[in-house]
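Subject: sequence -> structure tokens, single chain

Hey, anyone have a minute? Need the predicted structure for the following. Not urgent.
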Amino acid sequence: TELTDHGRGVERTGSGGQKSRIDPGQVPRPAAPVSEEAKEWFTKGLATNPLPPSGTPFRVVDDGNCSPRFMRLTINQFPSTKELAGRMSLPIAVSIQPLAPIPHDEDQVALVSDHSQGPIRCRRCRAYINCHVRFVDGGRHWSCNLCGMSNAVEPDYFCTLDAHGVRRDAAERPELSKGSVDFAASQEYYNRPAMAPAVMFAIEVSATAVRGGLLHATVQAVRESVEAMSKPGATDPRTLVGVLTFDAQIHFYNLHSDFAGDTPPMSVLSDVEDPFLATPASLVCLKDKLANVLKLLDALPGLFANTQIGESAAGAAARAASLALADNGGRVVCVFASPPTLGVGRLARLDDPNAVGSDREKRLHGAECKFYSAMAEQCCASQVSVDLFCCTSLYTDLASMAAVCRATGGGVHYIPRLGQDNGSSYLRLLNELKRTTLRPTGYEAVLRVRCSAGLAVTDYFGSFHKTPEGDIELPVISCDKTLAVTFKVDGDMSGERSHAAIQCALLYTASDGTRRIRVHTISAPVTNNISAIFKSADLDALVNVTSKQAVGHCLTHSAESARQSLVHACVQMLFVYRKFCATNPAPGQLILPESLKLLPLYTLAMMKSKVLTADNAIVRTDERVYMMDRVLSLSCAETAVFAYPRMIPLHSLAPDHGVVMANGEVAVPPAMSLSGEKLDPAGAFLVENGESMVLWIGTECPPSFIEQVFGIPGIPDNEAPRLVLQPRGNALSAKICTIVDHFRQERPSCPTLTVVRQKDAFEPYHMCYLVEDRQAHIVSYVDFLCHIHSQIQTKLT
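Reply:
Had a minute. Here:
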């Protein structure tokens, strides 16, 4: 490998008709994360100080641009002309996570509430005042950094300027010194009084749910959630909660009045073809009626213990739950154990696994049942979001059901092996349901992205409802929600202006009931130097944006078409770099820009992921739809590990591995390249991608390791997936459990853990994460690099 100032050159050897090869040991791979103290990163140095990788520890100091936790640009220098933007082939885009969690050692977003008339905005483009505006005329006017409009400063906001033209109070005003700020909303931003946070749980109680353990697990998860929500300071004291249950009918419970016995008064709705609110007072104030809610939850398992009803009206139940929230807004959490077969929203489409790669594939990924799309429109109008927990291994047609989740800010949660595995699916249901109800959340949200003159928004990618006016509406937006926005250069920016800006404004109701506008602003240099643009490229943002675009392409076309579009984009970007940026490159070299040296690897990895894989033997149709839904909302850090999972050895842990350090982090072994050649038959390896974990045990793994970790001397054939990982009273077991728990705590979802033994029948299904190997007609990493190089050479000639 030759690394130059221009980028990374990977040598290909061979001559004449001999096939060229690339040394597998020399190809670029992600650097193993180093367990160390987080380094400070100052946001104002965006152009000169490379962004830290999203998956590494860093401490952000907001001194003039928003944190990369909130917004990451694909390029941190903007092209000055439309012609340059077209030539460079790099997408101009931003990945936005508006309510991203902030570590405790960083400053939280400041709340500005001293403007009685609401936040100060530009008269022309309606951008919010920010730290990049320029004050002129002695401080009596300010020039908008997006459109250039001169705006008068109100008398009560006036302040004199110093010798450098900076307001003397700038450091004391967060809106003039920080890249991110929350403005307290004035009355004009209220369509109605701020809604109280509300959640309506819809729980399946059919015989399938009872026998499979879903009812018991759901009751436990809901109980822990409402108890946590009821603690002082945990949420708004006005928080409302309701519970309904369903099988072939829908059962409503009146929790307002204290009741004798174990069960509150129940109203049964038999007409699931036209669901309505059988008990208008279905919601209660949690603070006042916690005891009644807990009493009902404790009674449910016994109440339906002997049920013989096997059918489910999950669609009708979700609709009825949304009607209960219609006047207030809030969140529906619907948990079901069998596909909806009765009532509105019943699903009749049959699975067609052989459609992958055929003309039928597009229909399989699209909604056939229009009920859920219509319900999405109704829910958006009443500010209701829907989360669906699908806990069945039967084909459900999640493609139809997911429509209501994507549009309303909810999500699809797919847990198909509940009651059939080693218990990690129960843990996932418990943790994901609790996180869904407890994580920081905004309500009644409206998002708008603005940009400097010369730039224009072209498209949005993610899960949301887009209004005809171009606003993004979300009844609920969680701290995990991420979307991507693309731009084009539609005017000359090469004049006097040195920087261009992008501003994201999110109007939302916080969990304490206050209405706020969160504003993130990022300003980056404008340049006519294409090499500088490539040098400023951010791989994490690029992978996040292109993966969301690929899902959109897959939904409208096919997985094969999405794979081809990814390869074409990768080739085009690297071709442009070689043609316009590399200096005297050797003909036998694949030249990769340092900033994008891992682009081919992540492109190949996404092609082999369960979202786009050509191998329908390793992914079910519902699972693929669920993965699409997840990718549409994943953050930059989560997308990176989803595409290229982390694999570590467990059989050779150092003394400090699996130990909690002083900073709260857990030391883990360095990650390995994802190739089967790295799997030692005498070892044990853990692979995780944020969605699932696989603990691979080699056939020659010492019995002492298996005894310490699993408590048995050996693993019977094909029984590994049922093995339970838990502390066994020894150091090795404790270390591995600590590492697994640490990985789970790092992720928004709670990854399931499956144990796989080498050469067992289940191994091929679970080891699809070895993305550097050849899989299902998709080439290996080394061969893919050869293919990329060949395509670039063809374009050059």
